[in-house]
């Protein structure tokens, strides 16, 4: 007995604590046992994704949150992990279920080899091989589930045309194959399919020159993955590796029908969604199923129309909407029984309609009403087309109000499911008359109500109170004059005009910018403003509206109660403001970087801000940073001299290429951001003279300390000294990235999205080289005047130092100085 317990203990001890990475004749997997890859990265064992007692053999990251990467028995769960066992048997790795030991999953080989072993490798590959041999008989990398790990090949067999698919889970609690899959097609494009057939997204073909997929231009910005394509007569495949072994990342064919790329953020211990396609949830084919209505603005994205309910509430609750909606009341379509049509406004119409051309709305309506198998109709006014649906209604999407593409969609419902409203026909004449009277009264009241509502809505919209949907409000000059009490409270005078505080009648605060020097025509101005209005991001100041009356051009923004960053950063001795804590500074830098990355990469056209400085970083009530004044450089015109003139006093942030006169790219913003980041760290102007002789020009001093690996703490704002909360790691990262940003060569500067990644700690960054132009300044040992306002000759000298300097641009900058 004692020896039995001893052996049991011994057994548990051996297999419980020492990390085994192999299933062999000697070791089987059951209960809570797991195997762990040699490097400790991956772990395998039984897991249970939901509340039911369905167990699966799965693989996950041992260290990170338990994210399942691969499942063996995807659609054949076992009920009891204690009696089920994963073991080597009959030349295979097999999973036996419960007391009867029925096989539920197997590697399916025909080999008769006896001494097999299955090893979980440190790349996440489970490999089956003969014990004394290195030949691989079977590997999990050849049978991916929903996750594409580095090293996995998503293949196309060119002889048989068979593809290997990444297939989504059915729902978050059921790993069995769902409806969405990713595969490689013959044209070297990846496509996402619904139910293995309907394609709703494609990466476009692989371009061997640029090494990106044609329809995924954002891959240009990729610096994490090394994608490679292989093709010969028998097979083609893509695979990828990750440049830095510090980055953990995975691609997943998600239950949402989107392919998603996540990277692990160690600081927050969370997966960060890095990229996904299709961008819009409603672009996923049949996402909401039959009769389901998809809307980007609602949460959840799917809902059933009136008179319908989810076909399976259980699936619906698990975010699996594919079963769609069913009628609450079945249609009775015999004579005399009348169905009604429910109008749904602003709909993007469903697929699979029939087209009855050239008919008016009324003919369209009666055509559908008179045919019992017609379930819905819609009329396109512009084309004078009538569309009717007779079967399922799929991919119905609710668009935002005020869009131009929406249509009214009329859906047939049993009369009893139609919400109140005037009733239809009745047997009794009296009732009919009564109904008619009540009905017309109802109609009159309804019309009045609608008119009032529309008027109120318009008014509110004009007053900018209700445009959270992104539409811009057009204000009259008088309205803004009233709102700002005749421009009495000036908030500041930026490069493009003065800013005033105001309040709308709904008592929301606004900031009104009176633009100066706009020479654009009315139409062009409006186009630009509307473009700016569509750019929305949590780190960008939101444009609410504008006014354009002749020369009077004004922009209306959200008011930011905490003002601009400079007022918190550069404090006068006698100012009684609280010093910004390090954490907050870091968050401000990160938020600003995110806002800029959005401007550079995510908008339809890359928007170069051209004027990044602390004055243009505003802080909301939570001290969340918002970049202001974006898009204005374009509004004023890309003309070089013009921009320089409008940016008097901000040249401490200007990249060398501004002076040298070459074309300006987004990297100019990166330079300015780097300069500003140094100021955020040091809490003082870069150009400010210091009593300390060594610190003539702060950026050069910072670069010296960094590149010589000196005491990084010296760069920190003295007011944060002795402050334990300063994270030296973060300080180092911020200084390094700032120094990379201010490199002379544009190509040496990171992109804004790389800056974001570095600040997030996702991307490691090396020590930067010393920026050359700053080096030159230190060497010449003259007073440091590079890009400062102080003297015209110095600006001239520095521009001559630039090899590409164009005489016209340097003249212009000299002119500015003399006029200033
Ligand atoms: C399995 O056990 C036998 C003897 O019990 C031993 O010789 C062999 O090395 C073991 N194999 C593994 C893979 O541990
Ligand atoms: C499996 O065994 C563990 C202990 O070894 C026990 O706690 C658990 O309840 C068992 N599970 C089932 C389903 O019997
Ligand atoms: C295994 O053998 C069976 C019949 O013996 C055959 O039908 C099957 O295709 C073979 N499988 C493989 C993977 O070779
Ligand atoms: C592996 O061992 C088997 C017998 O156990 C033997 O037949 C085979 O030749 C060995 N293979 C290698 C590569 O040594
Ligand atoms: C998916 O396609 C299969 C045939 O390929 C079909 O039997 C099945 O009903 C389809 N699923 C749905 C949800 O339509
Ligand atoms: C990218 O991957 C390819 C193929 O795996 C390899 O040859 C190449 O060296 C890799 N490039 C880098 C920069 O790691
Ligand atoms: C194609 O490449 C694979 C290995 O990647 C190889 O096994 C196969 O023989 C090659 N086919 C041809 C026709 O060269
Ligand atoms: C990452 O790679 C570097 C060099 O390539 C190596 O020294 C280091 O050990 C690796 N780290 C891990 C966790 O594999
Ligand atoms: C009713 O609509 C169905 C489907 O659109 C069509 O096939 C059928 O011919 C129509 N019946 C009549 C009487 O128009």
UniProtKB/TrEMBL annotation:
The chain crosses the membrane at residues 432-455. PROSITE patterns: BULB_LECTIN, PAN, PROTEIN_KINASE_ATP, PROTEIN_KINASE_DOM, PROTEIN_KINASE_ST. It comes from the Eukaryota. Its EC number is 2.7.11.1. Residues 790-820 have a biased composition (Low complexity). Residues 789-820 are annotated as: Disordered. ATP binds at residue 513. Residues 333-414 form the Apple domain. The keyword Cell membrane applies. Residues 1-19 form the signal peptide. The keyword Disulfide bond applies. It is found in: Cell membrane. Residues 20-141 form the Bulb-type lectin domain. It is an enzyme of class 2 (transferase). One of its GO terms (molecular function) is protein serine/threonine kinase activity. It catalyses: L-seryl-[protein] + ATP = O-phospho-L-seryl-[protein] + ADP + H(+); L-threonyl-[protein] + ATP = O-phospho-L-threonyl-[protein] + ADP + H(+). Gene3D superfamilies: Bulb-type lectin domain, Phosphorylase Kinase, domain 1, Transferase(Phosphotransferase) domain 1. Keywords: ATP-binding, Cell membrane, Disulfide bond, EGF-like domain, Glycoprotein, Kinase, Lectin, Membrane, Nucleotide-binding, Phosphoprotein, Receptor, Serine/threonine-protein kinase, Signal, Transferase, Transmembrane, Transmembrane helix. Belongs to the protein kinase superfamily. Ser/Thr protein kinase family. PANTHER family: OS07G0415500 PROTEIN, RECEPTOR-LIKE SERINE_THREONINE-PROTEIN KINASE. This is Receptor-like serine/threonine-protein kinase. The lineage of its organism: Eukaryota, Viridiplantae, Streptophyta, Embryophyta, Tracheophyta.
């Amino acid at each position: 007995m004692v020896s039995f317990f001893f052996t049991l203990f011994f057994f548990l001890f051996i297999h419980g604590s020492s990390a085994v990475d192999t299933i062999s004749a000697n070791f089987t997997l059951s209960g809570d046992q797991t195997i762990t890859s040699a490097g400790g990265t991956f772990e395998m064992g039984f897991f249970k994704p939901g509340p039911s007692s369905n167990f699966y053999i799965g693989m996950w990251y041992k260290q990170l949150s338990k994210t399942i990467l691969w499942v063996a028995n995807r659609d054949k769960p076992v009920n009891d992990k204690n009696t089920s066992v994963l073991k080597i048997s009959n030349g295979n790795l097999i999973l036996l279920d419960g007391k009867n030991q029925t096989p539920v999953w197997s590697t399916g080989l025909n080999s008769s080899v006896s001494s097999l072993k299955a090893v979980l490798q440190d790349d996440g590959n489970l490999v089956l091989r003969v014990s004394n041999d290195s030949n691989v008989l079977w590997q999990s990398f050849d049978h991916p589930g929903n996750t594409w790990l580095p090293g996995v090949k998503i293949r196309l067999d060119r002889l048989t045309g068979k593809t290997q698919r990444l297939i989504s889970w059915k729902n978050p609690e059921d790993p069995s194959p769902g409806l969405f899959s990713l595969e490689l097609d013959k044209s070297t494009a990846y496509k996402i399919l619904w139910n293995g057939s309907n394609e709703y997204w494609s990466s476009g073909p692989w371009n061997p020159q640029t090494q990106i997929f044609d329809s995924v231009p954002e891959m240009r910005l990729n610096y994490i993955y090394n994608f490679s394509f292989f093709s010969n007569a028998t097979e083609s495949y893509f695979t990828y590796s990750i440049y830095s072994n510090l980055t953990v990342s995975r691609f997943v064919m998600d239950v949402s029908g989107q392919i998603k790329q996540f990277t692990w953020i160690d600081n927050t211990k969370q997966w960060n969604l890095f990229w996904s396609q299709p961008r819009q949830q409603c672009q996923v084919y049949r996402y909401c199923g039959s009769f389901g209505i998809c809307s980007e603005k609602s949460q959840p994205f799917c809902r059933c129309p009136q008179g319908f309910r989810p076909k399976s509430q259980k699936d619906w609750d698990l975010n699996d909407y594919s079963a769609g909606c069913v009628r609450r009341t079945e249609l009775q379509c015999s004579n005399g029984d009348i169905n009604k049509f429910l109008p749904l406004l602003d709909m993007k119409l469903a697929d699979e309609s029939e087209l009855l051309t050239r008919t008016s709305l009324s003919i369209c309506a009666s055509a559908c009403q008179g045919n019992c198998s017609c379930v819905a109709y819609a009329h396109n006014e512009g084309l004078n087309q009538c569309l009717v649906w007779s079967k399922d209604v799929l991919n119905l999407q609710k668009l935002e109000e005020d869009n131009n593409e929406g249509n009214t969609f009329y859906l047939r419902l049993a009369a009893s499911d139609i919400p109140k409203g005037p009733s239809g026909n009745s047997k009794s004449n009296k009732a009919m008359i009564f109904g008619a009277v009540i009905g017309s009264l109802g109609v009159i009241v309804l019309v009045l109500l609608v008119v009032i509502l529309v008027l109120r809505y318009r008014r509110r919209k004009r007053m900018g109170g209700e445009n959270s949907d992104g539409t811009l409000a057009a204000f009259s000059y008088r309205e803004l004059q009233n709102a700002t009490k005749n421009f009495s409270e000036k908030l500041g005078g930026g490069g493009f005009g003065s800013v005033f505080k105001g309040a709308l009648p709904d008592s929301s605060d606004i900031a009104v910018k009176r633009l100066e020097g706009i020479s654009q025509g009315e139409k062009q101005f409006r186009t630009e403003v509307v473009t700016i209005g569509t750019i929305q991001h949590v780190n960008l100041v939101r444009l609410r509206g504008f006014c354009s009356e002749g020369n009077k051009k004004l922009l209306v923004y959200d008011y930011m109660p905490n003002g601009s960053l400079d007022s918190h950063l550069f404090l006068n001795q006698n100012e009684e403001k609280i010093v910004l804590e390090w954490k907050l500074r870091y968050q401000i830098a990160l938020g600003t970087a995110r806002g800029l990355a959005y401007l550079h990469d995510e908008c339809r056209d890359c928007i170069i801000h051209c004027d990044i400085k602390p004055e243009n970083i505003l802080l909301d009530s939570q001290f969340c940073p918002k970049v202001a004044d974006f898009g204005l450089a374009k509004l004023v015109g890309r003309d070089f001299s013009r921009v320089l003139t409008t940016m008097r006093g901000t040249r401490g942030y200007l990249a060398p290429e501004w002076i040298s006169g070459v074309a300006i790219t987004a990297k100019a913003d990166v330079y300015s951001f780097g300069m500003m980041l140094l100021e955020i760290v040091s809490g003082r102007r870069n150009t400010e003279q210091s009593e300390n002789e060594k610190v003539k020009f702060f950026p050069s001093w910072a670069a010296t300390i960094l590149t010589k690996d000196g005491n990084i703490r010296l760069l920190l704002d003295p007011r944060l000294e002795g402050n334990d909360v300063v994270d030296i790691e973060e300080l180092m990262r911020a200084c390094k990235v700032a120094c990379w940003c201010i490199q002379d060569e544009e190509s040496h500067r990171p992109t804004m999205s790389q800056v974001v990644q570095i600040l997030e700690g996702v991307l490691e960054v090396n020590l930067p080289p010393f920026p050359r132009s700053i080096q030159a300044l230190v060497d010449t040992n003259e007073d440091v005047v590079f890009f400062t306002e102080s003297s015209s000759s110095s600006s001239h000298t520095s521009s001559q130092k630039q090899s590409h300097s164009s005489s016209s641009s340097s003249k212009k900058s000299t002119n500015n100085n003399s006029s200033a």
